[in-house]
Amino acid sequence: MTSERASDVGPGSPVERAFAAALTPRRERTRERLLDAAFTVFARHGIRGASIEAVCEAAGFTRGAFYSNFSSKEELFLALAERAMRRQLTSLDTVGKDLEPDLVRDGAVDYDAIRSILSVVVTDPGDARQWALMRAELELLAMRDPAVGRPFLAQEERLRAELGAAISRILDSCGLRFKVGERTAVDLLLSIYESSARAAVAAYPTPEDGDAAPDTAVLTELVNLLVTTAD
């Protein structure tokens, strides 16, 4: 376990700001390759079982390249989670721009269209098993180690707030709203999805057992309960 202070690592920290200021296209490509490799290595061996050497080998880099971009496995793990959410936010923004505004017809909400909007917050089914495993590990690590827990919670707070605001903007543009507070709605949606994702992995623990994509039936029902017209 690393001994970095929580304030020194994670998004928005001095380490992260210094890195961003010095980022070059070549270094950005190196960082992305390390993140891609870490996704595979962490999912296969877990954060405890995966070594920095294994991540470097999978990415085709030396330890020096790793430490030029990340101070620890834990910081790499947090960066991986941040990248995933950023991609989801980008997808959500794209859906919002291309969305037909007529989601309310004769006073009735087109929930199929709403579900298509919210579906972008769901991890790609091909990655669902790996993300469910890594998410569970990250949460356990955050609960056991304050040096990971504090930046993890700060990252979660910021990203969920951004996600809620993005969804609310789309709903508002279509004459819709959440029936409950924005943050409460996001927490409920993500909690239901993550619970379903864990259950799917437990039911199908290996790729040979079958597709571990989570069942979104409950998520669909929850959307019906959470979204209404703005009137």
TrEMBL record:
DNA-binding region range list: 51-70
Origin: domain of life: Bacteria
Alphabetical keyword list: DNA-binding
HTH tetR-type domain span: 28-88
Record PROSITE patterns: HTH_TETR_2
Coiled-coil blocks: none
Name used for this protein in its record: TetR/AcrR family transcriptional regulator
